[in-house]
Amino acid sequence: MELKLELSNFEEYLNKEYLIGRENKEEYLNHKIVERNKILLDFPYSVILKLFYQQIDFADWLLWQILGDKYGYCNQEQSDIPACKITGKHKHNGVWTSFWLAKTDYDYGFNEWFFKNKEDCNILISILSILRQMYCGSGTYNDKYFWVFLDDLSNKTISLSRQEKLKYFNNINWDSITDEILNETYNF
Q1: pLDDT in tens, the chain (188 residues)
Q2: What is the pTM of this model?
């Protein structure tokens, strides 16, 4: 089976074979359902993806750039590409959040993003092609060039409105940028 970024749904997550043989399967699923339902009260729109950890980090970084802070306790210190520069335990208020559902393979699994409004939920859908292109599970990027690229992108979009940022991100030639980063030729 080839692992790749895919749209999914909660039913697929609940019926996945990785749960077969798991101790306390019912307790585990009930806990996930209760936690998810609590989140849905304030963030009624969601998208579930099957993807690599690195794609989660990049999705969070992009959403942070476009929508602002992620709601809840900040776990950005654990990210390969942290969007938040604050260290130590702290919280943010924002219009989106996410919830790790389950690991199904090496560095791969189900993650769900939640949004206060449908327009913001659609932003994640619109950047799926970006996520597919920036990390496909077959390698890693040269840290220096990838970080410089992210900082450059952040600086170029910091003063733009949310819609302007989305348009900017969608107009980037991600294939070319990916090649430049991998080949260490990104012009910064």
Answers
A1: 566 778 898 888 887 766 666 677 788 888 889 999 999 999 999 999 998 888 888 889 889 888 989 999 998 888 878 888 888 899 999 999 999 888 778 888 899 999 999 988 988 888 787 777 665 444 455 556 666 777 787 788 878 887 888 788 777 776 676 666 666 665 65
A2: 0.79
Q: Is residue 36 part of a domain?
A: yes
Residue 79, in any domain of the structure: yes
CB atoms within 10 A of CB 120: 21
Q: Is residue 27 part of a domain?
A: yes
* Residue 128 phi, psi (nearest 5): -60, -40
For residue 77, give its domain range: 6-137
2, 102, 120: which is closest to 53 by C-alpha? Answer: 102
- Indicate whether 72 belongs to any domain: yes
Structural domain count of the chain: 1
185 contact partners, CB below 8 Å, separation of at least 6:
179
Residue 75 burial class via C-beta count within 10 angstroms: exposed 0-12, middle 13-18, buried 19 and up: middle
What is the C-alpha separation between 44 and 52, in angstroms, rounded? 24
Q: How many CB atoms lie within 10 A of CB 125?
A: 11
Pairwise CA distance, residues 60 & 76, whole Å = 9
